């Protein structure tokens, strides 16, 4: 097996000749697969609050569907790094499966092992503007335990290269790769007012109509919408509505219960 440092230097050099983010993503995933890694997850977040601004994955779509439907984000230690650290993490999902003490954790680690994601290494990479990247690498390669422990410094360098050279994709979507943001339950809770604004927006009301219904100014309506969009990692108000529905946040309209 090639040395991790050599592989990382080769990857960095090849990325220096690719300027399109979609192409950089495809190239990186292909190189990782050839080396022995099975999947790459990454996303940008605000430390402490844990709010994700975007996230993308090369994991199998069927596994991501299972992950979403099972609500596994609540037991995901990698995802917890966005709020409470640590900076780097190695997980042997098979070992965690034996030690898990909750139904959700058992299902999560069982699924990871079954889909070939037994070994996980993740790193938080600081970014300008009080932001950070979370980069996670997955594999079931028999040597992965050694890569991720004995060569932990090499893994950190590799994750840092990935985190500083790949972005969210195109301006209007995360292609290629799967968009993780609708399925990750890491958004900060919506306030009552933010939820109310989204409900009224879903009813087809314009900003001025929402302001009249809530007896607040249009500026305040826009402020609540902006805050809700940030929490839901949504680029537009329409996307915020879609993600709120996907996450089950619009099932109980508070403005109708006054």
Explain what this protein looks like in three dimensions.
With 258 residues, the protein is α+β, with helices and mostly antiparallel strands. It is 50% helix and 16% strand. It is built from twelve helices and six strands. It has a six-stranded antiparallel beta sheet, sandwiched between helices. Helix 11 crosses helix 12. It is globular. The model has no long low-confidence stretch (mean pLDDT 86).
How can the largest sheet be summarized? 6 strands, antiparallel
SSE string: HHEEHHEHHEEHHEHHHH
Largest sheet, spatial ordering of strands: 3-4-5-1-2-6
Radius of gyration: 20 Å
Helix run count: 12
- What best-fitting shape do the alpha-carbon axes yield? globular
Q: What share of residues is helical?
A: 40-55%
Can you count the beta strands? 6
Oligomer type: single chain
End-to-end separation: 65 Å
Give short descriptive properties of this protein.
single chain; alpha+beta; globular; 16% strand; 258 residues
Summarize the structure.
The protein is α+β, with helices and mostly antiparallel strands and 258 residues long. Helices cover 50% and strands 16% of the residues. β4 (119-127) and β5 (131-139) form a beta hairpin.
């Amino acid at each position: 097996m090639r040395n991790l440092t050599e592989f990382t230097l080769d990857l960095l050099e090849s990325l220096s000749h690719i300027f399109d983010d979609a192409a950089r993503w495809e190239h990186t995933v292909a190189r990782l697969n050839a080396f022995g890694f099975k999947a790459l997850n990454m996303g940008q977040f605000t430390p402490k609050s844990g709010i994700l601004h975007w996230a993308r994955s090369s994991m199998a779509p069927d596994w991501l569907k299972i992950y979403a439907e099972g609500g596994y984000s609540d037991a995901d230690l990698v995802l917890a790094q966005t709020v409470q650290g640590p900076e780097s993490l190695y997980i042997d999902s098979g070992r965690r499966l034996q030690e898990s003490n909750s139904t959700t954790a058992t299902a999560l680690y069982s699924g990871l092992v079954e889909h070939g994601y037994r070994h996980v290494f993740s790193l938080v990479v600081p970014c300008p503007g009080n932001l950070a990247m979370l980069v996670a690498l997955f594999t079931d390669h028999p040597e992965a335990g050694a890569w991720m422990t004995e060569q932990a410094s090499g893994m950190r360098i590799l994750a840092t290269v990935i985190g500083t050279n790949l972005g969210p994709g195109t301006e209007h979507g995360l292609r290629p790769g799967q968009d993780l943001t609708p399925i990750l339950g890491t958004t900060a809770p919506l306030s009552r007012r933010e939820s109310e604004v989204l409900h009224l927006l879903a009813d087809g009301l314009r900003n001025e109509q929402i302001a009249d219904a809530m007896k607040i100014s249009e500026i305040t309506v826009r402020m609540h919408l902006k805050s809700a969009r940030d929490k839901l990692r949504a680029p537009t108000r329409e996307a915020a509505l879609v993600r709120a529905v996907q996450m089950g946040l619009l099932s109980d309209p508070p403005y109708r219960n006054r």
